[in-house]
Write a structure and sequence with these properties.
Blueprint lengths: L3 E10 L4 E9 L2 E7 L3 H4 L5 E4 L4 E4 L1 E6 L4 E2 L2 E2 L4 H10 L2 E9 L6 H12 L6 E7 L5 H12 L4 E5 L10 H14 L2 E5 L3 H13 L6 H6 L2 H18 L3 E3 L5 H12 L4 E5 L1 H5 L2 H4 L21 H10 L4 E2 L32 H10 L5 H15 L17 E11 L18 E11 L2 E4 L24
Parallel strand pairs: 1-4, 1-5, 6-9, 9-10, 10-11, 11-12, 12-13, 13-14, 14-15
Antiparallel strand pairs: 1-2, 2-3, 5-16, 7-8, 16-17, 17-18
Helix pairs in contact: 4-5, 5-8, 8-9
Length: about 475
């Protein structure tokens, strides 16, 4: 039995077009688009008709940077794949790319298998994996080839967190050389972790233990230095590079310079760096701990460079780095020692709305909103045009978005499994009304109608900007 849905009367927005069109969905995929009111659209019949008059019809969001159930600092991120993907759906995101973790002394396969076990049968929306490479050796390098062949085509390394995820320059170079050969993409957490650890030790010795010092020791110059070093190592290896969670204007400048030189270098930023600042880290009574993440929040003046980078395409993607830890019992582990505060913010539910607010505020256009939140992450990580657009043949991951509704973000109303909101009290215009994932309603008129296990694992091709 085929199932058909027609979405009528909305403004269909993709990265390239805005058109008043009806959308026909058949058997979980987009079957056709036709201008609203034309005989072609009028002839369509379907079991379900959705009226999108006065609304936007947009592709489901692709969040290419999430950490569900991530072990960190003696605890775990508070969202499971079940709660995290449900929250993603509420926020109009229909695909996440999470990070499987290789433990030191273990194989990539062991890490990947462990993450498959966490996710399988639990996700409300579709998912894929990147691989965190913590232990570069000859066996790891061989495994990278095998993972690319089976659809895990990106590998994250860390210049930060010595003793946990850290790779030295030699390990980074070897992995980059391998990715240059097998078509994989190296993702880099670019902060000079060795130098930062010295500054942490010195700050604590001076009695500087509050959350705001987390931002002060993780200096923008050490993000810029590591970004520069990663770019040059990738250049030596002949490899492409994707720098995650760029927060500092000096790091944006390094990316812009590399791209001006014609290097295949890409950058991602996150809503927290666009909308929050060190003012949050400085909140009294340890409240600043809620905003501890790495790279850290920066002073407000960095925001202009990030917005400019998104407009000039020196930054191509906005992901969340969703890695939530509850304030009570988790963030509190760092009372009296900021270095023990688990690093991460909740945000998977807020990204599409915050970026629509950026449209309202005049920072970006509507099409650029879809580009940085849907189409480019899908292309960057080998999911396009299955994901990230509304076109015949694409998965019917579709969001009916009300651009006029107003909301106040709050922990009282969000669906992430965390006891605070990083955007508590923020008023935004626009919200998600209805969400389809592969043609199935998961949010229907602001009610969750999805289920754990609907979301399926989605293998990826290699980065589509390198073809």
């Amino acid at each position: 039995m085929s199932s058909r849905t027609v979405i009528r009367g909305g403004l269909v927005i993709t990265a390239s077009d805005e058109i008043h069109a009806d959308v026909l969905i058949e058997d979980g995929r987009i079957a056709a688009l036709a201008a609203s009111g034309t005989p072609a659209a009028g002839a369509w019949t379907a079991e379900r008709t959705i009226d999108a008059t006065g609304k936007y019809v947009i592709p489901g969001g692709v969040d290419a940077h999430t950490h569900m159930e991530l072990p960190f600092g003696g605890t775990f991120a508070s969202d499971t794949f079940e709660t995290g993907t449900r929250a993603a759906a509420w926020g109009g995101t229909t695909t996440i790319v999470d990070f499987a973790v290789q433990g030191v002394g273990h194989t990539l396969r062991e890490g990947l298998d462990a993450w498959h076990a966490k996710a399988e049968g639990n996700c409300a929306v579709d998912y894929a994996f990147h691989m965190i490479v913590s232990d570069v050796n000859q066996e790891t390098l061989k495994e990278m080839d095998l993972l690319v062949e089976e659809g895990v085509t990106s590998f994250k390394q860390f210049m930060a967190y010595p003793g946990v995820f850290y790779s030295d320059d030699g390990q980074i170079l070897r992995a980059m050389q391998r990715s240059a050969d097998n078509g994989g993409l190296i993702m880099m957490h670019a902060e000079n972790g060795i130098a930062i650890d010295v500054l942490v030790e010195q700050a604590l010795a001076r009695g500087e233990t509050d959350p705001r010092h987390h931002g002060e020791v993780r200096k923008a110059l050490l993000e810029a230095e590591a970004t520069h070093r990663a770019i040059r190592l990738a250049q030596v290896a002949g490899a492409a590079l994707y720098v995650v969670h760029v927060s500092a204007q000096e790091a944006v400048a390094e990316l812009a310079r590399a791209r001006d030189e014609g290097l295949p270098v890409f950058g991602e930023t996150c809503p927290q760096y666009l909308f929050l600042s060190t003012d949050s880290l400085a909140e009294p009574d340890f409240e600043g701990a809620k905003y501890v993440c790495s790279t850290p929040l920066r002073p407000k003046e960095h925001q202009a460079a990030l917005w400019k980078g998104l407009r000039t395409n020196d930054l191509q993607v906005v992901s969340t780095d969703h890695c939530p830890f509850c304030f009570v019992g988790q963030k509190e582990l760092g009372r009296g020692d900021f270095s023990k505060i688990p690093n991460g913010l909740p945000g998977v539910e807020n990204r599409m709305d915050l970026l629509h607010q950026a449209v309202v505020d005049g920072h970006i256009s509507r099409r650029r909103w879809i580009e940085i939140a849907c189409a480019t992450p899908a292309r960057m990580f080998g999911l396009y045009p299955k994901k990230g657009t509304i076109a015949p043949g694409a998965d019917a991951d579709v969001v009916i978005y009300d651009p006029h509704a107003e909301q106040v973000m709050s922990a009282q109303t969000h669906h992430m499994n965390v006891d605070y909101s990083a955007y508590e009290g923020k008023r935004t215009t626009g919200w998600v009304e209805t969400v389809l994932s592969r043609g199935e309603l998961v949010i229907d008129g602001r009610e969750f109608t999805g289920r754990a296990g609907h979301g399926v694992y989605t293998p990826r091709s290699t980065c589509q900007y390198l073809d």
